[in-house]
Automatic annotation (TrEMBL):
Keywords: Iron, Metal-binding, Methyltransferase, Nucleus, Oxidoreductase, Transcription, Transcription regulation, Transferase. It comes from the Eukaryota. GO terms for biological process: epigenetic regulation of gene expression; methylation. One of its GO terms (molecular function) is methyltransferase activity. PROSITE patterns: JMJC, JMJN. GO terms for cellular component: chromatin; nucleus. It comes from Glycine soja. The lineage of its organism: Eukaryota, Viridiplantae, Streptophyta, Embryophyta, Tracheophyta. Residues 526-557 are annotated as: Disordered. This is Lysine-specific demethylase isoform I.
Length: 577
């Protein structure tokens, strides 16, 4: 929400009939939401972003979001960058309804209506006019006052709209070599490639994850409640304009948040999945906006941040938030949550945006190689990041061993080396890096090794082949090394298992079920739902969703479609700078 007339740039992944569901007759609850912590790093601390973020993460993550005040300023303002450095800069807006939805089958809000194309100057004129017509003033207003006005309008509004420039490619960080912020490591254009960032291992461009995006807003521009894809971190920088109001729910309260939304926001008739998964899948569409007092009323932790120009907002893994947009990153300690997100995506048959398994294996190999050359005094075994990488990797390799052994007890299949990257399972959309089943003739319809039932042959009529990484020996060696000093399985002999039969097919981790008492991919939790995987292949579905990554990398930005969800990465509200 905006508290003064200039338009806002961020770089960064109703009517009275509503009162029966969202009681906003008394807006004093806005004063009851505690603020998240604010950090003021020194210039020395500011030199290493991910090191600093890891330093504050233990405390700050308890709030879901935090604010960081930059000790250095940009020499060139965003307006200069967008009008002078970027020649012929124009962007298209989305039109957002300024009201609350009933969230039943007759009233579901979307943010898909397209607006006009604007130059930066033209949109600035529009934003100033909108502010003045509402407040009859061009001066700054208290953020608390604007916050109340926003929720009052959302409760009473019927036909009002605002425009929001979303998912605009690029950023407003200056390219000037004399601009201190632009040349710093906090320039979000370079953030994903920092040495400690796991996203640097993604060798494909994914807008909003590997590359930042720009959002340009006006008074009451908003984005809905959501959690970042794959439970990633996100970072947002506020270049200029009015203050922004953020709300955040800590990751530890995510399940409670989903239950509350399911019970007190959504009508059951619009939910296609039962329980928290139903809420998660609907929230993933990023169209659900409701007042945070719903969380207060049901004892769900919620915090607030008022972001001023020159400040960063960090959202932590699995922290639901609403406000204004951002870019993603991940530290080593993200892997356990990444594993949980991967399981959930698979359970709901949602297309992944990043290849979790590939990132885990690549980072594990880097840790393994570095640990062999370190002195005994500097071994990484005691670090949180090391444990967060090692345990999911060990469980991943054990899961593959178990699956291949079960395949081996049935009809023999040919084996082949895989020299490419990850594949997407045509049944559950799981990303597969270590091994998978694939027809070596048509190279279509890959299948992961973690299904109770799977077809024996490809649609073309030929038997499947087991494709394994050509560096599987190195992966085994790393897994064995990580096991030393721990109670674990005897040997990893994946590379020697070449004859497998698919008839006995794999009764491995039921998504959240464990191998030897530990949950799949190393995150401990009780098994919830066994996923029944169909043995039938749908030609139509596979044509649109199972294009493998052999030639094209990750699913196309324009073609990454999740079943039941209109899914286009360039239209995602959460991916930006």
């Amino acid at each position: 929400m905006t508290g003064k007339s200039p338009i806002t740039q961020r770089t960064a992944r109703h009517g009275s009939h509503k009162l029966c569901k969202f009681d906003l007759s008394d807006l004093e609850w806005t004063n009851m939401i505690p603020e998240c912590p604010t950090y003021h790093p020194s210039e020395h601390e500011f030199e290493h972003p991910l090191v600093y973020l890891q330093k504050i993460a233990h405390e700050a993550s308890k709030y879901g979001i935090c604010k960081i005040v930059s000790p250095i300023a940009a020499s060139n303002p965003a307006a200069f960058v967008l009008m002078k450095e970027k020649k012929n800069f124009k962007f298209e807006t989305n039109v957002q309804p300024l009201r609350l939805s009933k969230w039943n089958e007759k009233d579901i809000i979307t943010f898909s209506m397209r607006g006009r194309k604007y130059t930066y100057h033209d949109f600035e004129v529009l934003a100033n006019k909108a502010f003045f017509s509402r407040f009859h003033s061009s001066r700054d207003l208290p953020s608390s006052y604007v916050e109340k006005e926003f929720w009052h309008e959302m409760a009473q509004g019927e036909k009002g709209t605002v425009e929001y420039g979303v998912n605009v490619e690029g950023s407003a960080f200056s390219c000037d070599p004399n601009d201190r912020l632009g040349t710093s490591k906090w320039n979000l254009k370079n953030f994903s490639q920092l040495p400690q960032s796991l996203i640097r291992l993604v060798d494909r461009e994914i807008p909003g994850i590997t590359d930042p995006m720009l959002y340009i807003g006006m008074l009451f521009s908003m984005f809905a409640w959501h959690v970042e894809d794959h439970y990633l971190y996100s970072i947002n920088y506020h270049h200029s304009g009015a203050n922004k109001t953020w709300y955040g729910v800590p990751g530890y309260a995510a399940s409670q948040f989903e239950k509350t939304v399911l019970q007190h926001v959504y009508c059951n008739k619009i939910i296609t999945k039962h329980g928290e998964d139903g809420a998660f899948k609907f929230l993933a569409q990023k169209t659900t906006m409701f007042p945070p007092n719903v969380m207060l009323q049901h004892d769900v932790a919620v915090y607030k941040a008022v972001q001023k120009p020159g400040e960063f907002i960090i959202t932590f893994p699995r922290a639901y938030h609403a406000g204004f947009s951002h870019v993603n990153f991940a530290n080593g300690d993200w892997f356990p949550l990444g594993a949980a997100a991967s399981r959930r995506y698979t359970h709901l048959k949602m297309m992944p945006l990043i290849p979790y398994e590939e990132l885990l294996c690549k980072e594990a190999m880097l840790v393994f190689k570095s640990s062999r050359v370190r002195s005994s005094k500097n071994k990484p075994e005691d670090t949180t990041s090391y444990q967060a990488i090692m345990l999911p990797f060990m469980h991943l390799m054990q899961s593959y061993k178990t699956s291949l052994l079960r395949l081996n007890s049935s009809r023999k299949l040919h084996s082949s080396s895989n020299t490419t990257g990850s594949q997407i399972c045509s049944l559950c959309y799981r990303d597969c890096y270590v091994a998978y089943l694939l027809c070596k003739y048509c190279f279509s319809h890959p299948i992961c090794l973690f299904h109770d039932i799977a077809p024996q042959t490809c649609l073309c009529g030929r038997d499947y082949t087991i494709f394994k990484r050509n560096d599987i020996f190195a992966l085994e060696e790393a897994a064995k090394s990580f096991q030393q000093g721990k109670e674990c399985v005897d040997k990893f002999s994946l590379s020697s298992i070449f004859s497998c039969n698919i008839n006995d097919c794999i009764k491995v981790p039921e998504r959240e079920k464990s191998v030897r008492g530990t949950s799949f991919l190393g995150v401990a939790s009780k098994p919830k739902t066994k996923v029944a995987d169909s043995t039938k292949h749908s030609d139509e579905r596979n044509k649109s969703t199972t294009k493998h990554w052999r030639n094209n990398g990750l699913p196309s930005v324009r073609g990454a479609e999740r079943p039941g969800i209109i899914y286009n990465l360039r239209k995602r509200k959460s991916k930006l700078i």
